[in-house]
Amino acid sequence: MVGSSDAKVKRKTFVAREDLLDRLSKVADERGYSLYALVNDLLDLALKADALGLDLRRVLDERGVLETAKRAGFVLALESLCYDMSDLVYEKAKGKALKSWFEAGVWLAKRYVTSGVKDPLDALRRDLGTFMWNASCFSLEGGGDKASVSVFSPRFSEAYTFLLASLFEGLLSGFGYEVADREVFKGNIRLEAVRKTNNA
Description:
Layout: H1 18-31, H2 35-51, H3 56-72, H4 79-92, H5 94-113, H6 120-131, E1 137-143, E2 146-152, H7 158-174, E3 177-185, E4 188-195
Antiparallel strand pairs: 1-2, 2-4, 3-4
C-alpha cells in the first residue's frame, strides 16, 4: 500500500468528516493497515483515475451494476448473438423456447422474493432498469392488485420480443400476478396483470 514505508515523506493535515474517518478506520483495521496507509492509497487511486480521465463514482456505479447482475444470475453476452440465437430457437422449437423463458422468469421472481429484501418487486425493477440498456423504454410497475410491464426497443428481433415477453409473464406469475391484457409485436411489449385469486 502507498505510505506503508514512506516515513521520510512530509505529512500534511486535512479535514474530513468524522463519520467517514470512523468507517475508514474500521476498514483499515479489518484489512490490517493503518488509517494513514489506507487514506494515502485511496488518494493515490483517485489521482490515477483522474489522470486517466475516469470518474471514480461512475466507475464504482458501473462495477456495482456488474456485481448486482452477477448476484442476480445474469451473464454478459453479445446483443446480436442473443437476437440470432433467439431467432434460431424460436424457429426450431417455439413452444419449448417460450416455456423455458417463462420458467426462467418465474425462477428470477422467486429469487428476488426469497432474497430477504424489503420490497422484492422494487428491487427487481431497479435492477432490470439498469440491466436492460438494450431497451429504449422499460417500466415494471406493481403492488396491490395490479402490475404492468412495458418494454420498447427497435433493435429487438421479433423472436426475442416474444421470448422476452414470456420471461416477463413468468416474472409476473412468480410475484403472484396473471396477465389479463397482452400486446406484443416486434420491439414492443405491453403486459397488464392482476393479482391471482386463491383458487387460480
